[in-house]
Amino acid sequence: MALLEIENLTVQFETASGWFKAVDGVSLSVNEREVLAIVGESGSGKSVSMLAVMGLLPWTAKITADKMLFQGRDIRNLPDGERRKLIGKDMAMIFQEPIASLNPCFTVGFQIEEVLRIHMGMGKKERRARAIELFTLVGLPDPAERLNHFPHQMSGGQCQRVMIAMAIACNPKLLIADEPTTALDVTIQKQILDLLMKLQAEHGMGLIMITHDMGVVAETADRVIVQYKGRKMEEADVLSLFEAPKNPYTRALLSALPENATGKRLSTVSDFMASGEFAGESR
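Structure (tokenized):
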């Protein structure tokens, strides 16, 4: 049984000119101990798809799906109380902008201990000990002292580690990482990716990696879904995708990588689409 199984997910937002489909009929699944990468340009519906699964989109969004199962349980119309028990405990998400996602009015220690209080029912001493353990696990220096810091007192990389610690605090079965290395320097990016893969292997989590970076895909994923304008263009295991991409859009993404440049000027996805080969069909 798949850990998460989604069929024909559609997400629409109302605009002045009518309803806009941000996600258009996307289907996917992820198993335990598997890393699924969802890749595509900004605006391709990657994050919106997962925010819909997590129940974190505005109430004005129109979300439909033929199937949305987590461990065989239908989560499409969960009551708010049941969803709150699920989200953050069995299913967790690392957001794209950690500093913006953390509450600036509370210390990071208070915020991670709140997760442990709500979902695990831990007492004060137990929460603090677990928070220190988690901060040590994600590589934060002086973890006991770090608990007393506010988000603005920490670097972007440190805030990202706090977000990871919060996400794994309750040993979730599924972890969704939304562009976890965006806006971080190259050295910190590598550290964060290595940390995520280490935690995923040690805890046996299913991991969904949302990214536009094909290098991250090659380094982390077992399977890959390529999205464009809210639609799934292609799905394949990572080796097949890089060696023999079937969809023109996937080939466009790969041809835009610096290592695949064949001329003086780097190709872009727009160049490829302008050639007439890309017709927008999904596979």
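The mean pLDDT is 88. The chain has twelve helices and eleven strands.
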